[in-house]
Structures are given as C-alpha cells and as structure tokens.
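Let's do one together. I've listed all components of the complex below, 628 residues spread over two lines.
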Amino acid sequence: MTEFTFTVKDSSGIHARPAGLLVKEAGKYSSDIKILHNSKQADAKRIFSVMGLGVKCGDSIKLVINGEDENLAKKELMEFLSQNL
Amino acid sequence: MKSYHGKSVYGGIAIGKIRFWKKSDADIACYRVKNPDEEFIRFEKALSEAKNQIDNLKEKALNEVGEENAEIFEIHKLMLEDKDYIESVENIICNQGINAEYAVSATAETFAAMFSGMDDHYMQARAVDVRDISDRIVDILSKKSESIVSYNEPVIIVAEDLTPSEALQLDKSKILAFVTFKGSLNSHTAILARTMNIPAIIGVDLISNEDIDGNLAVVDGFSGTIYIEPDEEFLKKSYQCLKEELEKKELLETLKGKENTTLDGKKIELFANIGNIKDVSLVIENDANGIGLFRSEFIFLEKNTFPSEEEQFAIYKNAVETMAGKKVIIRTLDIGADKKVDYFKLEQEENPALGLRAIRLCIKRPEIFKTQLRALLRASFYGNLSIMFPMITSLKEVCDVKRMVYQTAAELESQNINYKIPEMGIMIETPAAVMISDELAKEVDFFSIGTNDLSQYSMAIDRQNEELDEFFDPYHKAIIRMIDITTQNAHKAGIWVGICGELAADTDLTQTFLSIGVDELSVSPSRLLPVRKKIREIDLRKK
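Okay, and this is what the predicted structure of the assembly comes out as:
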C-alpha cells in the first residue's frame, strides 16, 4: 500500500470536468484507489463518489493506493493531479 | 401586459410566441416483476443504448457549441458507468424485485439529493445532470423515442428547467429565447445558452402554468424580464431594439477577430474602459485587445467600508485571469471631486474639482493606497497587469508613487508573497502634465490621456454646469494640440500613448488621432466595434 497527499489548486475545486478526468485516469490501474477528504472517503474510480466529496480549492486530499500497480499509479496520479488540479 | 423577472443568463431581445416545454414524465409506475434477472438485463440494454445516444449528442454538441461545452456529455457517460449508480439500480431490481424504470428514477433521486445537499452552488446544480441521464434510460425503457423537437415557427421556450440534452435536442434555428423557472447560473443550460448566443433568463418568478402557451411575449435578456402579451406601443419599441441589436450583431460578425488596421496598414490598439468586474464579459464579447481603463474606484464606491486587500486582490486577479494574457490597465483610486465616499471622511471643499482627489488623496492617505498597491502587485503575478496613476501634475508626484510601489514590492518580498512589479503609466489629464510630458515620459512606461478632465481643466469649464454648454467645444484646437504634444514627447522617450477619455470613442476624430500617432484608444465596450469599423475605413494617404 502506498499513499500521498495533494492540495487542490484549481479555483473551482474538484468540479465535474476534473472529476471526470480523474475517474478516467484512476480507471487505468488495477489497484484499489481511495481518496480521503475530511472525514469522507471516495472510490477514485466512481464519479459520484468523487464529486460527492465536495473538494474545494485549497483543500488537501489523501490518496491511498493498494494493489499490483500501486507504484506506477502513484507516480502517474501525482503527475495528473499537479497538471489538472 | 404582464412582466416577470429573473436572472439574466444571456442578453438580447426576442419577440415571439411562447411554447411551454413540458417534460414527458407521467408518474413512473412502481410494480413487482416476475423475473428480476431478466428485468436487470433489460436495464443493461437500455443503459448501453443510453451511452450510444450520449455519444451522438456529444458529436452534435461538438459541432454546435464547441469542445468545452461538449465535455458535459463525457461526464454524463461516466455517470452512466458509475458502479455506485449501477449497484443501486441492481439492488432495487434484483433484491427487491421492482421494475427497472422505477429503480432508475429512485436511484436518480438519491444521487440528486446528494448533490442538492452539498454546500456549493456548483455541485447543487449537478442534480440536474443525474436526472438528465436517468430520464434518458427511463425513456428508452418505456420506448419513448428521442427526436429533435422542431417547431413550425421560431418560439420562446418557457420551461420549469431544461436539462443539457433537452436544450441540445431543440432545433436551434427555431429557438428565440430560453426562459426557465428554476436553474442556476452554473447550469449547463445557462452555459449552453451563452455559447449559442440565445437570450436566456432563469429563475423567473412566473408561476408554473401552461395557460401562457401560445401567448405573444417579449424577452429582454439584458434586464432578465419577460413581458407577456405586450401592448402595441411596447411591442413597437421592442422591435426597434431588436433591429438595433441585429445591426450590432451583424457588425460584430463582420468585425470580430479583425485587426484594427487602416487601409494603408497603420495599426492601433483598441482597448475597453470598464468600471466593474462584471463588464469583463462585455469586453470579451466585443473583442477588445485588452482593458485600457479599469476604474478601480468603483470597488470603493459600492462599499460601506474600505475594501480589504484580499477583496481587491480577488477582483484584480479575476480580471487579469479572465483576460488571459491580454493587457489589463488598472487605474488606481480616483476618489474625490464628484466621486464621494462617506467612509473616507473627507472635508467639505470649496472647489472639489481642484481639491484633494485622485493621486493627491493617495499620497496624503498612504494606508489606503498601500492596501491597493499590495493587491495590485499580487494580482500582477497572475497575468498581464499594468497600473496607472490619475491626476498627475508634477514629476515629484510620479517619483513619490513609484517609491511607494517599490516599498510595497520589498514588503511582499520579505513576506514571501508572490508578486510582480507591473508596468506603470500615468494619466495625462492636466495641462501641467502635458507641458512637462517630455520629463514625465522618462519616468513611466506609458501615458493615457484622459480627455474629459483635460478639457475641463484646459477650458476652465465645469462639465456639470449645463449653463456653460455653449462655451464648451469638445473639438477645441487646444485639446488636439495637447494630444499631439503629449504623443510626440512620449514617442521621443520611447513609450506608448493612449487615449481613454470620451473623445477616444468619437469616430469623427479617429483619423486625427491616427495621424498624430496615438498608439491606443480605450473606449466603452459598446463602442469597440463602431470604432474598429471606422479605423478599417481610414486611409491616411488621403487627406
């Protein structure tokens, strides 16, 4: 299992468009990917779950990745987040 | 004639008959099915058909409203693939043995309620998206065919609310306006209406009622008002507005994206004057090359106490980010004279036009000016921002304010706050500044000539006093000569010069300004295209 935290810089937070991109990106990996935000937890491969977190600009989120390709997923997702959010 | 108000989404006038848009949703029946597994397969087939339809809609949206707006259908597809959504439907069908239509609509309500309960307007508005995708599946399940809705004549669509796919299903050429009772400014329908350039009003206080179907109405998208069964006189006036608007649109279509170049190839920058952050959309709509005068005092005039650094920073940052790299020239606080604010607690003056105003006030009240400078320098980090100082009469004033800018920068540096020193210019609006413009030009990056005050101070005529109108000559040779002197002195020092007063928009003078060599004209957004049209007709080789 591996994890990292990320602070959202996009002024709209995780709104529909980046949530959609994130879900698609997470869907590329076989690992189980969870997003933790405040006391809530979401499955990064499910769009309603991700949007339901209500992540706003300046919020920090923690990604917990568990599975065979977790290291690759972590590397790629860190890159993805810094570019899109 | 009755009128109802709502929020304006997109400006414009529309005159036509109302067509009341009714959702086809009869109450969805709930019943037990004999074979839940078969019922779930029926759902899965409908789901896959729904995805196909969305792909087609996305294609249509790409062609009609562009990639950015088409993305919503990509999101819709992901929603249809969402495991939580599918599991909820599966649970209702397979474990409770309920029909698929009901399972889908019950699931939709659960997810819509999740969005409605969030503390963010944008997310609340997403409830519509869930209902949209779910209605689509229900329609397929109940074998309702999807078709482009077309009317014989163009109509004003009045509806409770419209989902993105409903808005897109309508034949665009037959729609004059959208009017909805619900909806938010963040709704995709609102965004689509803006992209499709269709007048739209949302949140209208009209009671949902189909009696108005077929009634004649006028939609004023600018004020957010719908007038039902207008009287003859009002109708006549509205047709006149519509005609003017169409002429403007035509102008826009032929001139948008075109350069401000004369027939003999001389180019001039055409910027816009604004007094409010809300005007930025008008600037973009009318295709300005930048903002030549952002009157920052409006931020102060609208408030009852001093706006904080953060408030100002947010507004300036928003402006430069929205203009995306185009120049935004913000004029520092120009309070005093006719623009009074109670909380500044300024003394009554015998002669306010010649009194403690603009840069003088900023120098005397550095704490107010410092806050504004901090906000400006910070916002400058995020885009192409310039600042200019009003009412300059001496070299000392320029040196004083520049020193304050550098002090502010040093302060931000020591606090590790992002900032950038913007280009700095001054307003040339006093005869004194014109006379020493050769010296001033060495100290700043640009000049902007404020012709309103320059005329008033040169001719010693109070523009508020109507009695004096017969003595006032807006084309006085003195003003033209002063513009000439200022321009030549600016160019000698290698800086550019613009005009941001009312004269800049006067198309009778455009040729004169071009001959003098003025580099930029800044006019109100509605004057941008008429001035561009004029520039493109001028040939400086002909006298």
